[in-house]
Amino acid sequence: MAATRHFLTLLDFSPEELDTMIARAIEMKREHRAGADQRRFPGQVLGMIFAKSSTRTRVSFEAGMAQLGGHAMFLSPNDTQLGRGEPIEDSARVISSMVDIVMIRTFGHDVVETFAAHSSVPVINALTDDYHPCQLLADMQTYVEHRGSIAGKVVTWVGDGNNMAQSYINAARQFDFELRIACPEGYEPSAHLLEANRDRVSIVRDPLAAARDANLVVTDVWASMGQEAEQKARETAFSGYQVNGELMSHAASDALYMHCLPAHRGEEISAELMDAADTVIWDEAENRLHAQKALMETLLLANR
């Protein structure tokens, strides 16, 4: 039997496979809206392991698995031996012997890597401190739906060099676009990632310069989960790094802006943009459901 495939970062699939998955997500969205029966995986079970709280990730995976005809099981550290110190390797062996696919939302990226290495079923990274590849699938789906292929385009990231910024670096490589990262000094993404992708990724300190003629502008909260104590210091460091009408006026005339949510209006994004009638942010959020269904379908079929 072929080795079990996992989705821990965007680099786990080829650019061609990712394009196919995005097209499938768009198709599945159309099917779902038309009321089609998508229950192709009756009796399949998704184990959902959460060490970090969540709204969109839990709802989209749980609803998605139900729509595919399967069942989703929510596991928090309070409910499992993982929270009481059972080795990840042991948990992976046991859980994967009883379910068909696993998604993990946790802190250290090494946790999902260790779990996947000892799992007999596909493992999905539903967010770690280093990467958030599922959100990138939804973002890329949203861009394709509204503007077509993102290949050759310019994307500007405004804000912290966090797990989303690092996933955008991987996306620049896999989807073939130029990425400009506007962040204050000391808040850059991984130096190793930047170096490995320096042919298409650059740091531009001035957010207005970074946004010039961009086709897509993306941001996220200034303080991620676990960084609440840094909120005040970050507010000071990131003042001037807000995505607002002034910044978007420097982007291409048909540029889109995105935010993975939850958003802090008046901090990283203006209320004016967040609540604009023509924003694609709500499409972007909904597309988590469709992109992840396409992902789960791909992995479940690959593991048959």
UniProtKB/TrEMBL annotation:
GO terms for biological process: citrulline biosynthetic process; L-arginine biosynthetic process via ornithine. Residues 152-298 form the Aspartate/ornithine carbamoyltransferase Asp/Orn-binding domain. It comes from the Bacteria. The keyword RNA-binding does not apply. Residues 5-144 form the Aspartate/ornithine carbamoyltransferase carbamoyl-P binding domain. GO terms for molecular function: amino acid binding; ornithine carbamoyltransferase activity. It catalyses: carbamoyl phosphate + L-ornithine = L-citrulline + phosphate + H(+). Keywords: Cytoplasm, Transferase. L-ornithine binds at N163, D220, S224, M225. Its EC number is 2.1.3.3. It is an enzyme of class 2 (transferase). InterPro entries: Asp/Orn_carbamoyltranf_P-bd (IPR006132), Asp/Orn_carbamoylTrfase (IPR006130), Asp/Orn_carbamoylTrfase_sf (IPR036901), Asp_carbamoyltransf_Asp/Orn-bd (IPR006131), Orn/put_carbamltrans (IPR002292), OTCase_ArgI (IPR024904). It is found in: Cytoplasm. Carbamoyl phosphate binds at S54, T55, R56, T57, Q81, R105, H132, P133, C134, Q135, C260, L261, R288. GO terms for cellular component: cytoplasm. Pfam families: OTCace (PF00185), OTCace_N (PF02729). Pathway: Amino-acid biosynthesis; L-arginine biosynthesis; L-arginine from L-ornithine and carbamoyl phosphate: step 1/3. Belongs to the aspartate/ornithine carbamoyltransferase superfamily. OTCase family. HAMAP family: OTCase (MF_01109). This is Ornithine carbamoyltransferase. It comes from Seongchinamella unica. The gene is argF.
